[in-house]
Amino acid sequence: MSVHGESALQPSGQSSGLKQPYHLPDPSPWPITGSLGGFLTVFGIILAAHYGNYVVLVLGVLTVLATMFFWWRDVLKEGAIPGAHSAIVRLGLRYGMTLFIASEVMFFVGFFWAYFNFLIFPDTQGNGQTVWPPSNISTFDPFHLPFLNTMILLLSGTTVTWAHHALLEGDRKNLIRGLGITILLGLTFTLCQAIEYSHAPFKFSGGGIYPSVFFLATGFHGFHVIVGTCFLAVCWFRARAGGLTPERHFGFEAAAWYWHFVDVVWLFLFICIYWYGAGHIAAE
To answer: I want to staple 235 with a disulfide (CB 3.0 to 4.6 A). Which of 190, 230, 252, 270 is the partner?
Structure first.
């Protein structure tokens, strides 16, 4: 992927005339197609919910997925151009990923805020209940599937760290092995959560506020696990193709940060919602 006038590939201060070290990419169609895909997806959700028409929703999702694929493909090509991703550009990418994870943290702060609001002030549910979880709700046994999923995610955190260490040591074999195991653990977590949902003693609709808060918090986390698994799968293919080196591997580093974030959020979910929630209702 070329850049304007090729001068952006030169370090600052050389004869190219470039006075700053930033990378300037060619005009790209992907921001507008991504915006269009996002609009079609949201509009499609409205049509599907009110009229049962899923055509626009499917079109929107496919547009978003295609944009993601081609945009990230261009970024990978761009990163392979000597001088395009300079040290300051890579630092900017790290800041961007850090801020992205911080924004994701605030999503979960909202879910935890809702949960503890009703736990501390159960009479605000508006359904005549004065306890939380409501007396008509049977909570999950925290030391059944939720505990198994906790162990799976904690183990996956160690395997992705193993893979990162192997990459820094130039050990490509163990890099691929560690990433592969992490991906399998992520898929196992998703399978266990699907089984858990299928055996849930309450449903998303018709059960009041508790099922809504529970499924939004744990389901949104499950979505993050799926995204993180895809992120790591891309890194696995890149590792097999030799696209990751000890000196340049920010894509994998970002995936590892994201995966550790997913691990930590699950620990809070397990402790606050599964374990403390079950203990709280037992105490009542």
So the answer is: 252
